[in-house]
Amino acid sequence: MKKIGILFGKERSFPEAFVQRVNSKGIDGIVAEPVRIDKALQGQPSGYAVIIDRISQDVPFYRTWLKNAAVTGTAVINNPFWWSADDKYFNNCLMTQIGVPVPKTAILPSHDRPDDTSDESFSNLAYPLDWEGIFQEVGFPAYMKPFAGGGWKNVYKLHDKEEFFEKHRETGQLVMLLQEEIVFEEYYRCYCIGGKHVRIMPYEPRNPHHLRYVADFAPSAEKLQEMTDIVLKINRYLGYDFNTVELALRDGVPYAIDFCNPAPDADIKSVGAENFEWVVETAANYAIEKAQANNGGDNLTWGEYVKRSAGK
């Protein structure tokens, strides 16, 4: 019997529906359940052929436990090694190299020194930075947000340099991005599962959270295909099995705004019944596919960037 597990926190609608959907299919030799961990010993298999990870970004214990599961043969979705190495600034840098439009972005050293550092720790950092050069490149209004993380935490919209310096002081030891504002005509949130299944969802981030998937626009067939190709390309290079990509259309050009969401919102109350059904069904089918293909060894998905770099 091959077990498919889902590792989650306080969310309920997606994990419960996922387990029920897999088991309802009655696939011989396949069963799904919530992951249960009663001990963690090095080199011992997890007992799961596949694990869907929905929570390790918030629980370091789970992240390192998942790495052991991966080393001992589990197909962990998403790859815990890559997810540990990834960040939003690197993602933007990679997009500039593969031809995906992204907002102009600068990374900023933390306003406060990290613990256990001193002025001497920053001998290679110019002081002050070339703030005028940064502001000229990015422009205002701009958004400042952490280079890693999500959930719209510590995100600021800034209108001028005076507001920038005021808000930057509030960020403490966080490493922040300063990013060009893309004034968009349409906005889309795009699920990608298995690196091949894409759902393009009209999305209005300016609405209250529970109404963001309620939008009065839709893409043309041509634009739908263009955005699908971009979503597939991004996930192919990053190597995510389960991700959402946010695309903002400015003058008809899709800009990738946020595309590192490896535990994306899948709650029925926010994504809506139709999107929820697609996510549950597609994730269940993909997990079953991965479980059936698991015959030991490395069952992780590695992105094109890593594979091409390792092949040099």
TrEMBL record:
Nucleotidyltransferase among keywords: no
Gene3D superfamilies: ATP-grasp fold, A domain
Key words, A-Z: ATP-binding, Nucleotide-binding
Signal peptide: none
Name of the molecule in the record: ATP-grasp domain-containing protein
InterPro entries cross-referenced by the UniProt entry: ATP-grasp, ATP_grasp_subdomain_1
Organism: Niabella pedocola
The keyword Hydrolase belongs to this UniProt entry's keyword annotation: no
Coiled-coil region: none
Domain ATP-grasp: 92-289
